[in-house]
Amino acid sequence: MPRVAPIVLSTRYEHAINTLVAKRAEFAGAIRFNGADLADQLQHIDAVLLILGYKGDPTLIPALKRKPNRFRKGELYRLILKHEAEGSPSNRETATRIVQAKGWDAALVKPIMDCIKTAKGWRRRRRAAIQLPAA
Fold it and tell me: Which of 79, 78, 75, 64 is nearest to 22 (CA)?
């Protein structure tokens, strides 16, 4: 009878396990939200996770839902500045102008408005971090 090596659970494979968990979440999201045909790959990832000593059930890893990127890097803030310079008094007006300029559906005004609020907050916090008061 062949001798089987004992399974040793170690932290030696932490990086591989973390990467495989992220990839499994990505694939599960692609299957659930986009209808991709990746079920075979999920079985392989689950098997490798168990081989490497993943503690837990791989099927309980939540599916990852990615948001679509509507703007290139820095594009949203440039559009915000442009439309505010033209006289947009509110975030709603700015979002409406951006949606019209891009030719998008009017239903995107609310999500774009949220993006504008987030972008302004990021810019405000970044500016505050750079201009720390001298003590």
Answer: 64
| C-alpha torsion angle, residues 106, 110, 111, 113 (rounded to 10) | 110
pLDDT at residue 82, rounded to an integer: 92
CA angle, residues 67, 69, 71, in degrees to nearest 5: 150
More confident residue, 3 or 120: 120
95's tokens: 């979002």
CA nearest neighbour of 27 among 40, 18, 17:
40
> What is the full DSSP assignment across the chain?
-PPPPPP---GGGHHHHHHHHHHHHHHHHHHHHH----HHHHHHHHHHHHHHT--S-GGGSPPP-PPP--S-TTHHHHHHHHHHHTT--SHHHHHHHHHHHHT--GGGHHHHHHHHHHHHHHHHHHHHHHTPPP-
Q: What average pLDDT score do residues 16-28 get? A: 90
pLDDT at 3: 45
